[in-house]
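Sequence in, structure out. Go.
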Amino acid sequence: MIRAVVAAALCAPLLSGCVIYANEGGERDVVVNWADGAKPALEAVRSARIADGRLIVRVDSNGCTDASHFMVDLTPVDDGVTNVALRRNAEDLCKALVPDGVEVSWSLDELGVEPGTPTRLLNPTKL
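Output:
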Protein backbone atom coordinates (compact mmCIF):
# COMPACT_ATOMS: atom_id res chain seq x y z
CA MET A 1 0.00 0.00 0.00
CA ILE A 2 2.77 2.44 0.93
CA ARG A 3 4.61 1.64 -2.30
CA ALA A 4 1.47 2.43 -4.32
CA VAL A 5 1.02 5.78 -2.56
CA VAL A 6 4.70 6.69 -3.02
CA ALA A 7 4.58 5.65 -6.69
CA ALA A 8 1.42 7.68 -7.22
CA ALA A 9 2.99 10.72 -5.58
CA LEU A 10 6.04 10.47 -7.80
CA CYS A 11 3.91 10.05 -10.92
CA ALA A 12 1.42 12.79 -10.03
CA PRO A 13 3.11 15.51 -12.12
CA LEU A 14 2.86 13.25 -15.16
CA LEU A 15 -0.85 12.56 -14.79
CA SER A 16 -3.70 14.33 -16.55
CA GLY A 17 -5.01 17.66 -15.32
CA CYS A 18 -8.66 16.85 -16.01
CA VAL A 19 -11.00 16.58 -13.04
CA ILE A 20 -14.51 15.22 -12.90
CA TYR A 21 -16.51 17.03 -10.25
CA ALA A 22 -19.78 15.36 -9.34
CA ASN A 23 -22.31 16.08 -6.67
CA GLU A 24 -25.07 13.99 -5.14
CA GLY A 25 -27.60 15.61 -7.50
CA GLY A 26 -25.95 13.89 -10.46
CA GLU A 27 -24.55 17.03 -12.07
CA ARG A 28 -21.12 16.61 -13.68
CA ASP A 29 -18.57 19.11 -14.91
CA VAL A 30 -15.29 18.15 -16.55
CA VAL A 31 -13.57 21.49 -16.71
CA VAL A 32 -10.77 21.91 -14.18
CA ASN A 33 -7.20 22.29 -15.46
CA TRP A 34 -4.39 22.13 -12.90
CA ALA A 35 -1.68 23.54 -15.17
CA ASP A 36 -1.24 26.59 -12.91
CA GLY A 37 -0.08 24.35 -10.01
CA ALA A 38 -2.98 25.35 -7.72
CA LYS A 39 -4.16 21.77 -7.15
CA PRO A 40 -5.40 21.30 -3.57
CA ALA A 41 -3.80 18.61 -1.41
CA LEU A 42 -5.37 15.17 -1.18
CA GLU A 43 -7.94 14.94 1.61
CA ALA A 44 -7.12 12.48 4.39
CA VAL A 45 -9.91 9.89 4.60
CA ARG A 46 -10.91 7.73 7.55
CA SER A 47 -12.30 4.90 5.42
CA ALA A 48 -13.36 4.16 1.87
CA ARG A 49 -15.39 1.48 0.15
CA ILE A 50 -17.40 0.74 -2.94
CA ALA A 51 -20.86 -0.62 -2.14
CA ASP A 52 -24.13 -0.72 -4.04
CA GLY A 53 -22.59 1.04 -7.02
CA ARG A 54 -21.27 3.97 -4.96
CA LEU A 55 -17.89 5.23 -3.82
CA ILE A 56 -18.34 5.98 -0.11
CA VAL A 57 -15.68 7.75 1.96
CA ARG A 58 -15.64 8.91 5.58
CA VAL A 59 -13.93 12.28 6.04
CA ASP A 60 -13.50 14.86 8.79
CA SER A 61 -16.33 17.33 9.20
CA ASN A 62 -17.29 20.32 11.31
CA GLY A 63 -20.95 19.62 10.60
CA CYS A 64 -21.52 20.91 7.05
CA THR A 65 -19.34 18.68 4.86
CA ASP A 66 -21.06 17.01 1.92
CA ALA A 67 -20.04 15.62 -1.48
CA SER A 68 -20.14 19.09 -3.07
CA HIS A 69 -17.10 20.02 -0.93
CA PHE A 70 -14.91 17.69 -2.99
CA MET A 71 -13.46 17.39 -6.45
CA VAL A 72 -13.01 13.84 -7.67
CA ASP A 73 -9.95 13.37 -9.87
CA LEU A 74 -10.03 10.17 -11.96
CA THR A 75 -7.02 8.93 -13.87
CA PRO A 76 -7.00 5.64 -15.81
CA VAL A 77 -3.60 3.94 -15.70
CA ASP A 78 -2.01 1.34 -17.95
CA ASP A 79 -2.75 -1.67 -15.74
CA GLY A 80 -6.53 -1.20 -16.18
CA VAL A 81 -6.96 0.44 -12.79
CA THR A 82 -8.59 3.84 -12.35
CA ASN A 83 -6.88 6.03 -9.77
CA VAL A 84 -9.27 8.14 -7.68
CA ALA A 85 -8.16 11.22 -5.74
CA LEU A 86 -10.41 13.38 -3.57
CA ARG A 87 -9.55 17.03 -3.07
CA ARG A 88 -11.55 19.34 -0.82
CA ASN A 89 -12.64 22.43 -2.76
CA ALA A 90 -14.61 24.13 0.04
CA GLU A 91 -13.90 24.51 3.73
CA ASP A 92 -16.39 23.31 6.31
CA LEU A 93 -16.71 26.40 8.50
CA CYS A 94 -19.44 25.02 10.76
CA LYS A 95 -18.73 24.51 14.46
CA ALA A 96 -20.40 21.16 15.24
CA LEU A 97 -18.56 18.38 17.04
CA VAL A 98 -18.45 15.42 14.65
CA PRO A 99 -15.79 13.12 16.14
CA ASP A 100 -16.37 10.29 13.66
CA GLY A 101 -16.59 12.54 10.60
CA VAL A 102 -19.24 12.01 7.92
CA GLU A 103 -19.70 9.73 4.96
CA VAL A 104 -19.94 11.31 1.53
CA SER A 105 -20.61 9.33 -1.61
CA TRP A 106 -20.83 9.42 -5.38
CA SER A 107 -22.41 6.85 -7.67
CA LEU A 108 -19.97 5.13 -10.00
CA ASP A 109 -22.19 6.27 -12.86
CA GLU A 110 -21.81 9.93 -11.77
CA LEU A 111 -18.05 9.47 -11.78
CA GLY A 112 -18.01 7.75 -15.15
CA VAL A 113 -16.57 4.52 -13.72
CA GLU A 114 -17.94 1.25 -15.04
CA PRO A 115 -19.03 -1.15 -12.25
CA GLY A 116 -16.36 -3.79 -11.70
CA THR A 117 -13.52 -1.50 -12.83
CA PRO A 118 -10.57 -1.89 -10.48
CA THR A 119 -10.07 1.39 -8.61
CA ARG A 120 -7.32 2.70 -6.37
CA LEU A 121 -7.90 5.53 -3.90
CA LEU A 122 -4.76 7.69 -3.71
CA ASN A 123 -5.78 9.66 -0.62
CA PRO A 124 -3.93 9.11 2.65
CA THR A 125 -5.83 7.32 5.39
CA LYS A 126 -6.35 8.62 8.89
CA LEU A 127 -7.52 6.82 12.00
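Check: DSSP finds two helices and eight strands in the chain. The CA atoms of residues 62 and 96 lie 5 Å apart.
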